[in-house]
Design a protein that fits this description.
350 residues; alpha/beta; 8-stranded parallel sheet; two-stranded antiparallel sheet; 10 helices; 33% helix; binds N-[3-({4-[(3-aminopropyl)amino]butyl}amino)propyl]acetamide; binds zinc ion
Amino acid sequence: MSTFFQKVPVLYNPIHKKHHPRYEYDRGEQIAYQEVPRRIESALEALSTLPFVDIFQNDKLVPIDFLCEQHDSAMIAHIQKISREAARTPGEKDTYLYPWIYPLNARMREKLLDSPDAAGCFAFDLYAPIGQHTWEAVWQSASLAVQSAEMILEGQTRLAYALCRPPGHHAGVRMMGGYCYLNNAALAAQKLLTLGRGAILDIDYHHGNGTQEIFWDRSEVMFVSLHADPSDEYPFFSGFDDELGGPQAVGTNQNFPLPKGCDDRLYLNTLAKAIEKINQYQPHWLVLSAGFDTISEDPSTFFELTPAAFPKIGEMIRALDIPVVVVHEGGYAVEQNGILSAALLNSLYT
Ligand code: SP5
Ligand code: ZN
């Protein structure tokens, strides 16, 4: 093995900056879009200062066919089509098309897909608008996760970090929302299945409903998530502790809902239980859906974690002693993305 790869690869591509919607809607009120480019630039800067890190600008794009193994091809075609449509929209040059009509059954969708206002097809909320550069950003974001997995398959490293933006864990087989379009973690996991069974651990504040859906009835991937209790937090419809997997995969889905106000102590005690579940499953690899919106400073969430929790989270995951792909998810206290991702990666490595 070349000395080149003894460092930890951090995969990045600047195309994400071209995807920057201006607005989101907080119970109908227009506010600034929270999922901003600076989040990933902050993480890039902080990770660059770690002595064991090599930044790779990845330009490879994963084949569309590979994306279609986890996502409905109609949704992939839809994101591409609406991006092209946004580019052609007259008026302001950087238009984002937002859901208007939500089709709730197949017939509604079929008709709406052919309409001039199809942006709501596949959307479950208003958080995933599509602009002229959204498709290229989304495709590259997914590609960063898959290429990170590929580096592990090639034996170049046992730890890699994908600086994905847009994030992915709310995106399902045929649904988008929560700033997510394609499920980066699920796509990395699909690649890693070459090594045998594996686990996805999701530490974002919000339940990874998309990832859960994709692996719901697949026993070869265990999905374990710690998140705010969906009975009073987004996404509200999934993330309850009785969601254990489909008939072919009972027990390979494990949710750990936590109350608002959750502190380091409760969080780390719960993480120990989650990691015990993963250990019992005996996975050959782990994808970590790394969200940083659990921190007390986060403007849109209600946990009370301190930065000191993150090195502990990393140590506990490192003890699994399996290859890890870290996939960047949420985190809206913008500069905390740098501080916390560096603390996490440092503890996963050291
Ligand atoms: C990937 C990810 O973390 N997605 C989260 C999407 C849901 N965000 C909902 C935020 C609602 C809170 N409104 C912001 C209030 C600003 N003070
Ligand atoms: Zn989140």
